Amino acid sequence: MSKLINTMMKLSAAVMVATVVSVGMVGCDPASPESVSLNIGEETKIKAEATANNTQYGLSLKVTKVTDERCPTSLDCFWQGNAAVDFHLTTATGEYDFTLDTYRNEIATDFKNDIVIEGIRYALTDVSPYPVNVGEKPPKKTVTVFVDKP
What we know:
The protein has one helix spanning about 1-25; strands at about 35, 40-45, 50-55, 60-70, 85-90, 95-100, 115, 120-130, 140-150. The longest helix has 24 residues, at about 1-25. By secondary structure, the protein is of the alpha+beta class. It is globular and about 45 Å long.
């Protein structure tokens, strides 16, 4: 009889631990994107698929997609390549989708490094980490933007 009670107590303890762990994990999604503060006049780092917000100006800037086609550091390339970042901007008066690029060239007008929307400039300053090896699964990217009022 005491063996049965001992087994039942162990089983009860295991169920309680499992319940506490399950309840503690409700609402915790490690893959959910983070929201960061978007400060005017400063650089802001935003992870891919995450959003940066500025409550003062009613701005919400989301990184919707990062396409990194820069030359990996393990290679010698004739062109540095480009990382293109797709954004979705929500303001108090509208919504805008745009793409900014890391490639900078005065002649190549197909690549935009910055854009002005409703009097606020959004400039792409970095996409990291930089590619290292060909064929390597790319890690989740972090985008750095500088936002200011020109």
